[in-house]
Amino acid sequence: VLSALEAMTVDVVAFGGMALLIGLGLVTPQEGISGFSNSATITVMAMFILSSGLYRTGAIDLLTERVLRLAGRSETRQLLLIVLTVGPISAFLNNTAAVAILIPFAVKLAREHQRSPSKFLMPLSFASQLAGVITLIGTSTNILASAQAQELGLAPFGMFEFSLLGGIVFVAGVAYLLTVGRRLLPERAVPEEITERFDLKPYLSEVIVPEGSPFVGQTLASLALPRDIDLEVLEIIRDGRHLRAPLVGRPLAAGDSLIVRINAQELAKLEKLEGRALQADSGREIAVGGEDTALAEVIVAPGSLLAGATLREVDFRNRYGATVLAMTKHGQVVARRLPDTVLAVGDALLIKAPTGVLRSMKSDPNFILTDDMRQESHRTHKIPVALGIVAGVVGLAAFGIQPILVSALEGCVLMVLTGCLRVRELHQSIRWDVIFLLAGIIPLGIAMDANHTGAAKLIADAVVGLSQGWPGPLVLGAFYFVTMILTGLISNNATVVLMVPIAAGVAANLGLDPRAFIIAVMFAASTSFYTPVGYQTNAMVMGPGGYKFFDFTRVGAPLNVIVMAVTILAIAWLWGL
């Protein structure tokens, strides 16, 4: 319930749950913290590091550039190349990382051919999810489900054990996206001017500090403004020069021009302040930034330190050397109290910064730049080494020579030793929100076990009683449907922990293959299309695509139904239900 209501972030909910389970004695302290040493948690952490190694060498960027050069002018062909590019990357790397890398390329391709990015970005997100279920390492959900199967006494899943099923689902999903889905996609007109996309002009004004103003000599931090005036100073222009950050401690001088964010009603109140402390200057076009600065759109990335915080709390302007001019949240422009708005994954920020700062932000894991800004620090000469390491990790696990946990850890060490990845970058690459989510939610699965509370068995017995006489595929479909709905409301990883032990128990009671039921739960949790909050890649594309909430329902709900039908029928055929 806490997750669905978004009362707090899902990793905090999971971690709080872990503490509560230990405090109530439902698990021992050792069991409560066992999520930190669970094979799923460590394997997922290792996959983040391996993905970062490929990114830092520029291997994915190079592949993407070369493939998209073949796009031609046909929209269908361009869309096909986008989904076929993200597919192989998402099958072997974390799919959120794949989408983050490909967003700028998809946006650039759309603009070069005078198309709306909305025609490409939602299919990009959906295709990454479809491909994530092709291999064991395509998404953290698969790795977690495999670890849970092992804890239930079943053998862990092999690297390509469900690849045939995943391939069938991917083909069916791509066929929908290229035909019916393409026609359902909205045509969002995206203005060329980035300030127009954020509807900035109604909230941007220039005010002057006149001679005799009581604000002369005061700093921005000490200005005493009425509470009902929501004003933020973006720039100070003095004698034609744009003063650099930090601005908050600079005393104001008579004649200073201030570029401020404020709406028309509050601007009128501002001019009526006692002593004409500030007065509007409407005599010229407002220009933000100087010759050495540029505007850019950035997305709050999954795992970003900004998620759950405000711009004021993170001291954004001083920490990053950039000014946030505007923000969109769930596709809507945030016009008031911007510094105090809590940020979330997928929020789009319009920032002004020196070009050097923007280049460094491209390599910062907290952000996704939607503009195709060149990354100068790629170690392209290390691309063969990085690809060889990842191929070795997959090969050793696929042929059963080593468990994926062992080969992935070895690959992480090799990435650093060979110079593909620096130690500082290794630390930055780990999605700590996912790690804490896994570590916190795994004890819940332990507590549901028959040797502890027996909650999973209780629910499984109730389900078996309700489904007496149902054919196996129908029971399987019911589990898929419930998992699909839950994933749209809470984290996919949390959903898997809740549903896997129940599904395995029901399958055992009905004399059916529990692995088939676990795979159904895994696929349902890893493919959520009908809401923008059901999967993080959906939230990531919402801002740059200009989507509204129900755009995902219109395009994604039919895809969810198609994938559910194909998955159930294919499992019934492949596993003989």
Describe this structure in words.
With 577 residues, the protein is of the alpha+beta class. The protein contains 24 helices and ten strands. The chain has helices at 10-23, 29-32, 39-57, 59-68, 75-92, 95-112, 121-132, 140-151, 163-178, 180-184, 194-197, 264-271, 316-320, 355-362, 383-398, 404-417, 423-429, 432-448, 455-466, 472-487, 492-510, 514-526, 536-545, 549-574; strands at residues 204-208, 232-238, 241-242, 257-261, 279-280, 293-300, 323-329, 332-334, 348-354, 367-369. The strands form two sheets. A five-stranded antiparallel β-sheet has the order 3-2-4-1-5, with helices on one face. Strands 8-7-9-6-10 form a five-stranded antiparallel β-sheet. A hairpin with a 2-residue loop joins strand 7 and strand 8 (332-334). Helix 6 (95-112) runs parallel beside helix 23 and helix 8 packs parallel to helix 21. It is globular, with a radius of gyration of 26 Å. The two termini are 33 Å apart.
Percent of residues in β-strands: 5-15%
Which parts are unreliable, with pLDDT below 50 for 5 consecutive residues or more?
Answer: none
Radius of gyration, rounded?
26 Å
Distance between the amino and carboxyl termini? 33 Å
What does the main sheet amount to?
5 strands, antiparallel
- Biggest sheet: strand arrangement: 3-2-4-1-5
Number of helices: 24
Shape: globular
Helix content: 40-55%
Layout of secondary structure:
Elements: H1 10-23, H2 29-32, H3 39-57, H4 59-68, H5 75-92, H6 95-112, H7 121-132, H8 140-151, H9 163-178, H10 180-184, H11 194-197, E1 204-208, E2 232-238, E3 241-242, E4 257-261, H12 264-271, E5 279-280, E6 293-300, H13 316-320, E7 323-329, E8 332-334, E9 348-354, H14 355-362, E10 367-369, H15 383-398, H16 404-417, H17 423-429, H18 432-448, H19 455-466, H20 472-487, H21 492-510, H22 514-526, H23 536-545, H24 549-574
Helix pairs in contact: 1-18, 3-8, 3-15, 3-16, 3-17, 3-18, 4-5, 4-6, 5-6, 5-7, 6-7, 6-23, 7-9, 7-23, 8-21, 8-22, 9-24, 15-16, 18-21, 19-21, 20-21, 20-22, 20-24, 21-22, 22-24
